[in-house]
Amino acid sequence: MPMRLVLLALWGALLLMPAGASYAHSVSVEHTLETVIALAATYDSGEPMAGAQVTVYAPNDPTTAWHTGTCDEMGRYRFAPDPALPGTWTIQVRQAGHGKTIYVEVGSSTTPATSAALVQVGSAAPYTLLQLIVMGGTVVWGCIGTALFLRGGAADAYS
Length: 159
Description:
By secondary structure, the chain is of the alpha+beta class. It contains three helices and seven strands.
């Protein structure tokens, strides 16, 4: 076989190779889908609870901490509960005397695609109209009672 024919065959093989193909290394990528609970902890003012302590309790032992950590500078924290422990997970978020305990239900039928939960911790929910009326009434009642007491009307009634 003449050398010219060998070079032509090699040149043809190079032209038929896909562009950018590399056959030097093999790559394997494995993945798992997990249930993730994402917290966003804020004060009532909306300020994030940066650095707040997070304590997670598993359903099988609600008295011993299963996991602990701290919120980031935006008050966010993420963790993946053990899928072998379905039930109600208890999560406490605390910082400088402020905090809240929430309960998150993780079921055995929870699918990873639908189970990512963003749980707002400490954000103030708006009050209902009935709650506003009751709070306003108690403030007015307290002011009237204090004014009558300071005026001396309460002392005269017991004389």
